Amino acid sequence: MNTTAAAVVESAGAGFTLTEIELAEPRADEVLVRMVAAGVCHTDLGVAAGALPFPLPGVLGHEGAGVVEAVGSSVTRVRPGDQVLLSFTSCGRCANCRDGHPAYCDVWLPLNLLGGARADGSPTVSRDGESLGGHFFGQSSFARHALVDERSLVKVPADAPLELLAPLGCGVQTGAGAVWNVLKPRPGASIVVTGAGAVGLSAIMAARLTPATRIIAVDRVPARLELARELGATHTIDTTTADFAEAVVELTGGKGADGVVETTGNTGVAGAAVSTLAARGTAVLVGAPAFGSTVPVDVNFMLPGRTVVGLTLGDSETEALIPVLVDLVTSGRMPVERLVRHYKFEEIQSAVADVVSGETIKPVLRF
Asked: Shortest CA distance to 211 belongs to which of 230, 228, 193, 232?
């Protein structure tokens, strides 16, 4: 057993408390990582609030970045001393994994979001002999050390700035993947992004690197919309003063949007977003409302080739996409630093409060 400090959620709504935990020894396909940084994501906050049936007490965190300290006997991706970014895990054997779509792994939910343990049910995290919920996205990175699935990690260069790159594992990857892997904008395309948070602004930065010529950011916070413009939006819509759907029609010359990335998880916004699609347009639903939430769709409106598609983690193959994102960020072509504010690990509750209030777009903890 390896003893380390972690931010434990004792019960739904109780917040994060730093305490000593024990990590199991690495199995053949696992890696012990010393954390350097970890992003705080709305998914962490939703689970901590009890919105998903993850076993608590437990250790969350799924945008980890750190240095490998030990590897299991069958690990080939990394060696001790390597710098790594952590992302989601997957089985590697099902049809979707083999087809290059591990975010749609047959066992994605239990392995990443709900199970709190390895696939065989054994714990990775314990305290005083009692099992805790762990294995969150194959990592549980709100801790000074994490026991990580080999399939959750991606090696990055030795000089890569981990404190800046941590959010690539979820938020940045999700926004970028929505644009590059799903919408794939053609020259002259119009892209609408609803919600100018970390995922939405990542989608805008990604869209700027495509031949899309209209990139429309939608939010209700003027400062976020101004930042969206600085990061690549050509137009903005403030929904406190303008009708969203009418504004999109006007900005696209009556045609509608070729693509929409919906990041808010608000069903009203999602419904309005779908209604702005041009013929053969695609709406990508990224934001996740409560289970059971529905959005009504006019069938006849959909018949001219319109598409609504759900998205998990950008539909990314992490070993292919994350190194590209690292290169774009470190070369300055995706200025993720504009989204990030750093906090000490001990300040995790302040980071949570600031993301809930909207003061911080993407908190990143430093260990």
From this structure: 232
CA distances from 254 to 10, 113, 282, 290, 309 (A): 52, 41, 17, 33, 23
Cα–Cα dist 162/139, whole Å: 16
pLDDT at residue 52 in the model = 87
**CB 34, CB 67: distance < 8 Å:** yes
Within 13 A of 323's CA, how many CA atoms are on the CB side?
Answer: 10
32: left (phi over 0), alpha (psi -120 to 50) or beta: beta
* Cα dist from 205 to 43, 135, 174, whole Å: 21, 31, 12
Q: Count CB atoms within 10 A of the CB of residue 259.
A: 28
Instruction: Note the helical H segments in the chain.
Output: 42-48, 95-98, 108, 162-165, 171-177, 198-208, 222-231, 244-251, 267-275, 299-302, 318-330, 348-357
pLDDT tens, residue by residue, 128-137: 999 999 999 9
- Which of 171, 194, 169 has the alpha carbon at shortest distance from 321? 169
Q: Which two tokens stand for residue 221?
A: 């916070």
157-191 per-position pLDDT tens digit: 999 999 999 999 999 999 999 999 999 999 999 99
Output b/e per residue, 236-256; b: 16+ Cβ within 10 A: bbbbeeeebbebbbebbeeeb
Give the burial string for 78-96 (b: 16+ CB within 10 Å, else e): beeebbbbbbbbbbeebeb
* CA distances for 201 relative to 27, 148, 226, 286, angstroms: 38, 28, 11, 13
